[in-house]
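Problem: given the chain below (534 residues), write out its structure.
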Amino acid sequence: MSAPINRRRFIRTIGTSALLAHPALAQPERRKAPFRVLFSNDTTNILSCTSPYHEKREPFRPEMLEATVDETAGTGVEVHMLQPAHGWVPWWPSKVYPLEEHHRWWREHYGVELRNTVHEYILGGGDLFDVFIKRCRLRGLTPFISLRLNDQHHLTYVDTSKNTRGPHAICRFYVEHPEYRLDPKRGPHNWAIPEARAYKFAFIREICENYDIDGFELDFMRHPNFFRLDETTRGQRVEIMAGFITQVRQLLDRTAAPGRRRWLCARIPCYLADCEDIGIDLPAAVSAGVDMLNLSASYFTEQQSDLPKMRKLAPDAAMYLEMTHCITTGQRLTKSGGDNFIFRRTTDEQFYTTAHLAHARGADGVSAFNFVYYREHGSEGRGPFNEPPFHVFRHLGDPEWLARQPQHYFISDRSFFGQRVLPKRLEPGKPVALTLDMAPPAGGWKRPGKLRIQSREPLGESRLVAKLNGTDLEPNRDTSEPYPNPYSPMLGTAETLRAWTVPPSALKDGSNQIEVSMTDGNPTDIIFVDVAVN
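Solution.
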């Protein structure tokens, strides 16, 4: 058997003496991060997606990683963030938890040999981070590393006999210490326990000490579950997270070149209530050293968020609203495996409108996550698939251009995480009220727009009426998509859609109140609402 993992190797990182900034290095004056467009690359997409540089089931080659950088170069993306898989098993030549040790332990514990072509590349002397950083420098991109702090992918297989699932997600430390988990059977780590935090900090320290990166992102969103809420107070959670951020800030300062600031970014919920659950207090996080706040709805493009409130709480930090490849997901098509569902994809107009609203509410820019998953990935039969619309990045950092574009606002029925607004039950005598934050285009709204609702079941002969900010809206027979849409899955049909004409005078900058009532018909759920207007 392998020797027990050295717990002291991780616990020692809790001490502050080794984390103090080097007194000989004068730190540069703190200023706001200048970036407008961030791009997150989860690395696993290289093999899970079929792409111009990766045929299905083709083994990993470093040129594939270079290609993921190349396709963002010259598009408007400024910061390229590389996530080394799920953050439990190092996808770099680690001395904290060597990959050789991991493979030897896996063979002894699970009784199977690991087969992972990325691991084989690293074991053969390859270095993903070195390839990534050099390619970013060559292509004019700013390289960041992003680390998932408590990812839950594949942890359900931790006790599986002859386990072949998740060799890049299940590590020895996790298996040997069920007492550190939120759920002893399979949950992520409980961050109230110092050893759990120390495990991740040891990785961060190793990365910052050995690689010439310009910034580091702490990903609190994969997945946003760090504490037992019934066992911790808000104050305790905030103190723990602020302390961890302080350690990382001091580490970045200590390892930065003289006069250079290494940016610290935090990927956090775009809703304040969810931030509170994971111990993120915005003023405390910024005071502890966060430069950039990346506001996320996890898996989805989301327009309606707490960004305006968060802007007021953190006026000096650079703030970004995250967008992804989809706005909602549909039915699961297979019983097992990930991403086995239908997607409603984010369109160009929805990207532009989301970015416009974000800028109007005080964001400094936008970010992209899971962007390349327009491509074929996962199990069969979930298409049609498309090449990602990289062209949208050219404009996402330009507020003046965005303010001149046609607008497409929406509220979707989504799952996984966050504040769900839909579905809403629609039945006679019970109006459905919805709020839609909207920002006028340059020169204001000039032309009539269109409000649509999409129901779960066919509406048949049901009679519906709608109001916007108290104005009665006229029915519109045209329920079709307001703009050309290359992504057909999950769009409504004539049987599930109703539409109304929106006079520009009914709209206002800020919260717009929508009310939909059924005067006669069979109850159903509203699962999608959109307003298209110029």
